[in-house]
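Standup notes
- DV: blocked on the single-chain target, sequence here:
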Amino acid sequence: MFGAWSFRKVRRAHPSRHDCAKTDRRINAAPPRPKFPLKTGNDIQVLECVRFSPVETTLLTKPCIDEGFRVSSAVPKPAPMNPKPILFRPWALGLMITLVQVFVSVVLIAPEGPLSFRYNTLIQHDSYWFANIVDRGYESTVPPVSHKMMEVSNVAFFPAYPAIAAILHYGARLSIYDALLVTAQAAAWAFWSYFFLFCQRWNLSPLLQFFGALAILAHPAAFFLIAGYSESMFMMGLLGFMFWSTAEGKGARALAVFHGFIMSATRIVGIPCAGYPVVQAVFRNGWRGLGEVRSWVKRYGSAVLVMVGATLGAGVFFFYCLLRWGRWDMYMLTQQSGWAITPEYQAVFKPSSYRWLVPALNNPTEASQMTMTLGGVLLLAMMMSELLPIIRRRLAWTTRVGFYFCAAVIYYVSVSGVASVEMESMLRYEFCVHALIVLAILHFLHQLPTPRLWVRVSGMAAMALLSAAGLSVQGWYVWNFTRGNWVA
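- DV (later): unblocked, structure below
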């Protein structure tokens, strides 16, 4: 107790008027105390107010021993900690979902046989074309043959997916089928990781993240992410391009261009999707920014450079076709000759393109037609729902503009391409649109006020029922796909 007090000599025999007034205010004009301290028991009377020297709080957390001297100090420096357990980090969650998809498809649904045989049942239909490209490279006559014959004309697919699989095949000595599957599943892991990275950037609750991932996973065509198809490669490139083009940092733009290069080198629809950063920049700066011509370079220069870099993947492929066959459009010619695909750019605006009948489970063409209708309705509904926040300017709707732009572009290009073949494969193409819409919905819901309990319970129950139905249909499609039947 005595160590807590400090005594000091009286400097003046007669305190000044200011000191007296200060003392009077503190003790409420009590009778004057004696000039000398009196000690009675454990109590001490002090002539003057006890004054403590100020203590700097920063010194309390600083070690008393220099860092260069490696001896334990009284107070250690605080160490940064990651608040999330390792199992709940984006890359770990993405890996778990990918492994679950592979396990269910290969172990539970694939036909009986050795594990390697069951695993290779994920190679079907278009996968054989990719395997042919890995084995022989691109080959074609000019003009391409008028029917599907991969041994003569195989320039019907963009090069990114088979090129990366070829690196694994010739570099890691994997079989062609295994190289294709490992490439697709690694890209699926990256796609799911970027999904959770967006959720982490937006600070979404674990419940929203769970139901968002479930909504994507329950799509009937979600299993194509881990099959020998290019869906996962394209989605990985697209989400990575969108994530890094809106990120801060020195290497963000380079990573955006890298992912954009893969995106446009995987699917032709990646070319218009490369406009994502420009669309984001335009809406972020508003119409006033467009009017200030002198500031265009500062406002939009970086976004335009990223967009141009992202289109180089397709540009390199077209240039290769020009050098090899003298026709930069060999891909389009092969699609038209072998698959009878003739673009119909007005198909989206024709009511006859939309089918409203419930499809039969054994008719994948009807399923693609119905998926095309539902995808268009969902996209239109979400874009219409944004009108009220835009008018009131209450929500950060500009973040979602780029997602709607890419979803609309993919939907339009896909419908225009397959309208001439009765929307065949639209079930698979619409999955990309579905994933983007789900991300936009998650961001939208996160900004809304927390609804009442009965609303949340009803929403979760509806999502559970819809997801159960979607997973059931997907299981049926996986069963057919792994046995060689056509799905999409």
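- Follow-up: The two ends are 83 Å apart (CA to CA).
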